[in-house]
Write a structure and sequence with these properties.
Helix content: 25-40%
CATH class of the largest domain: Alpha Beta
Number of helices: 18
Radius of gyration: 27 Å
Strand content: 15-25%
CATH topology of the largest domain: TIM Barrel
Structural class: alpha/beta
CATH architecture of the largest domain: Alpha-Beta Barrel
Bound molecules: beta-D-glucopyranose
Number of domains: 4
Number of strands: 26
Distance between the termini: 49 Å
Strand order of the largest sheet: 1-2-3-4-6-9
Shape: globular
Length: 740
């Protein structure tokens, strides 16, 4: 009797569930139909607008009317498009015609952490929050396009712009860029993913011609852009300054085909500022909006220069002569109108918000989750607040504002809390003493201005302060000045600038209880690493920098960031540098990416060159145990889900998060492979003493390599090896599977 009742219950339940599934499927189908209908409606509307536009009006839409806007058509009520940098917050207002600051008093914003920090969180949910919040600020500032995020792959630690990108791994960058885009675009503001593509150094960026294998292009440099287009559905993209295969990326036949034909990108390709060089190519090879072409595209502009843009009068003339078919123009205008419908013509978008507590909280949350603890001898950190201790805070980066400088990603932050202020606010009982230690000079774009203070005096003060303290926190690293972490130039050496290595060594001589807190967007050489008690990598953390750093140092937040790129011991250990000048920086005309697909940890692993700190590495105040690592079966076919499960136990004394990372390698292959490549990861928060089960799924198709012999992806049959761990250099288990 009881059994019958249970059976009946089960059947009723099944019936309810299947009808729910049916309803769900119907809803989904309805949504798709509505979507299709609204797309068709939109395309028809665009058709009708295009028919009403004159040739001149259409051409005008394809180029700038000011430094950061392109025109609409007032006659038809078509609005302008307003853009702003990006990607760490909305840049202060710039003059209409030149690069001077407009001097507004209502354009101060929240500075969010740099994208390297976001990548180091390994937390796509935070990326979504980042996007939503920075998008709200862009919307409030009446911007239609936010110029970011950047996903150029970290190839060399000398690249001045790595801090604006998402690290060295295409899978990590893809997983992190998609939610950012979706978040921004929920505000009716377009993200503009940049710089498409191969802009992996600043030196000679405006002309260098990159030679790279098709395989490395597709496996390393393109995936994050592809994910941005296909998964993120990004509405605009920015071209890179450099050349590829002898053609500028703004109007590159091959790159345009990949973007618009292969990936079916339906948005607008916007140039980088001053990156257009040829009218005919721009007309034919997919450039939609030309920006920033001035006399030199960056620092000067002539009155009415806009009419002389490549896609202005010269374009009009070619169209009038019939040298270029109008269909090319119409395609551009269609894409621009699509962008407008999604942004400036979207009546349903909200008004945005700016500088509110919620944004500051999100900035702090991302900052704390991205900070990476690299070394922590004898639990140096966390440091408890205690009236018996004296903490020496030494180094220029303890007080230097880092939202200023860096080039186009500079910010006019409403607040920026320095590490020193953050620590003072957190440590009410301990005594904090401070010395500058070294001085780097002011932050000026494209110039290095000398420091003014007496270096010897600064050093002696620092040593005195260090000798009086129980604990030394040295805040050094790089900064946002020219030839540091800054657009328009590359670093000139891998070591720390401004004689910091000597200073650190001397401080250690007077106080062995010294830690180094690096503020940078790049790896640096650390000759002193085994003499310091602890090392933290903090990136550029934005408005709440000091509070986030104090959160970690005090243990209020347990660190959980992981490195999004490798820290080689010395520059020559980096793949690009190991092939000599032609590989980096090139001969000033050409450059060959000789390392091919072996970028970052792929190189270190495969060539067995140990880095100082590895991709994916990062410590916690607690300990985790990853166990019961299993795969759902041993033999797979094409397009099948591989399910990797494991149990993560927090075995220490702090609550905290761990990132389980899954790498896959193919030992025997018809092509050269990296030993292993990241194919899945998951961040999980676990209370002390507790455990959680995880499942990470990977589609077998994602194990394909780009086969140059067929110009397509190729999934090889045979054995694969799955590596599971919590860093690329800490693999806990190897599993073997086969694809047949
Ligand atoms: C940078 C872009 C930026 C643009 C506008 C260029 O120099 O490369 O990333 O969006 O300027 O400021």
């Amino acid at each position: 009797m009881i059994m019958q009742k249970n059976n009946l219950k089960r059947q009723v339940l099944l019936l309810i569930m299947s009808s729910l599934l049916l309803i769900n499927a119907k809803v989904n189908a309805q949504q798709i139909t509505v979507q299709n209908n609204s797309n068709q409606y939109l395309e028809k509307r665009i058709d009708s607008i295009i028919q009403q536009l004159t040739l001149e009006e259409k051409v005008a839409m394809c180029h700038a009317q000011s430094k950061f806007s392109s025109p609409g058509v007032p006659r038809l009520g078509i609005p302008e498009i307003w853009m702003s940098d990006g990607p760490h917050g909305v840049r202060g207002e710039i003059n209409w015609d030149d690069w001077g600051y407009a001097g507004w008093t209502n354009d101060s914003i929240t500075a969010f952490p740099a994208l390297t920090c976001l990548a180091a969180t390994f937390n796509p949910k935070l990326s979504k929050k980042y996007g939503i919040n920075v998008g709200e600020e862009a919307r409030y500032r009446k911007k239609d396009v936010l110029l970011g995020p950047g996903v150029n792959i970290y190839r060399t630690p000398l690249n001045g712009r790595n801090f604006e990108y998402m690290g060295e791994d295409p899978y990590l960058a893809s997983k992190m860029v998609v939610p950012y885009i979706k978040g921004v675009q929920t505000n009716g503001v377009a993200a503009c993913v940049k710089h498409y593509v191969l802009n992996n150094q600043e030196l000679w960026r405006d002309h260098i011609n990159v030679e790279v294998s098709d395989r490395a292009l597709h496996e390393i440099y393109l995936p994050a852009f592809k994910a941005a287009v296909q998964e993120g559905k990004v509405w605009s993209l920015m071209s890179a300054y450099n050349q590829y295969q002898g053609q500028y990326c703004s109007h590159n036949e091959k790159l345009n085909k990949i973007l618009k034909e292969d990936w079916k990108f339906d948005g607008a390709l916007i140039t980088d500022w001053g990156a257009t060089h040829n009218t005919k190519e721009a007309a034919l090879y997919g450039l939609d909006i030309e920006m920033g072409t001035g006399t030199d595209g960056l620092t000067m502009s002539t009155k009415n220069a806009y009419d002389y843009y490549y896609l202005a009068n010269p374009f009009l003339e070619l169209l009038k002569k019939g040298d270029i078919d109008e269909s090319f123009l119409n395609d551009k205008v269609r894409r621009i109108l699509r962008l407008m419908h999604r942004t400036s013509m979207n009546k349903n978008r909200g008004f945005g918000k700016i500088n509110n507590q919620e944004h500051l909280d999100v900035a702090r949350e991302i900052a704390t989750e991205g900070i990476v603890l690299l070394k922590n001898e004898n639990s140096f950190f966390p440091i408890k607040d205690n009236k018996n201790i004296t903490i020496a805070v030494i180094g220029e980066n303890a007080t230097r504002p880092m939202t200023i400088g860096g080039g186009s990603s500079e910010l006019k932050a409403k607040h920026e809390i320095s590490p020193l202020d953050g620590l003072k606010a957190r440590y009410k009982n301990a005594t904090i003493i401070h010395a500058m230690g070294y001085e780097s000079g002011p932050s000026v774009y494209a110039k290095v201005l000398p420091a003014k203070l007496d270096a010897e005096k600064l050093k002696n003060e620092a040593l005195e302060v260090a000798s009086k303290a129980d604990i030394v926190l040295f805040f050094g690293g790089l900064n946002k000045s020219h030839l540091q972490d800054c657009e328009g130039g590359d670093r000139q050496s891998y070591g720390l600038p401004f004689a910091q290595d000597d200073l650190i060594n001397d401080i250690i001589k007077v106080n062995t209880n010294t830690s180094v807190i690096l503020v940078s967007g790049n790896a640096v050489e650390m000759p002193w690493h085994n003499k310091t008690k602890a090392i933290i990598q903090t990136w550029y953390l934005g408005s709440q920098a000091g509070l986030a750093i104090a959160d970690i140092i005090s243990g209020d937040v347990n660190p959980s960031g992981k490195l999004p790129f490798s820290f080689p011991k010395k520059l020559q250990d980096n793949a690009a540098h190991s092939f000599g000048k032609i590989s980096y920086p090139g001969d000033s005309i050409n450059q060959i990416y000789k390392e091919g697909i072996l970028v970052g940890y792929r190189w270190h692993d495969t060539k067995k060159i140990k880095p100082l700190f590895a991709f994916g590495e990062g410590l916690s105040y607690t300990t985790f145990n990853i166990s019961e690592i299993k795969v759902n079966k041993k033999i797979f076919s094409k397009n099948e889900e591989i399910k990797i499960t494991c149990k993560v136990t927090n075995t220490g004394t702090y609550d905290g998060s761990e990132v389980v990372q899954v790498y896959i390698g193919k030992p025997k292959s018809k092509v050269k492979r990296a030993l292993k490549e990241l194919k899945g990861f998951q961040k999980v928060f676990i209370n002390k003493g507790e455990a959680k089960d995880l499942e990470i799924t990977i589609n077998t198709n994602d194990l394909a390599f780009y086969d140059e012999s067929i110009s397509n992806w190729n999934l090889e049959n045979g054995s694969y090896e799955i590596f599971v761990g919590n860093a690329s250099n800490n693999i806990i288990s190897n599993l073997k599977i086969k694809i047949l």
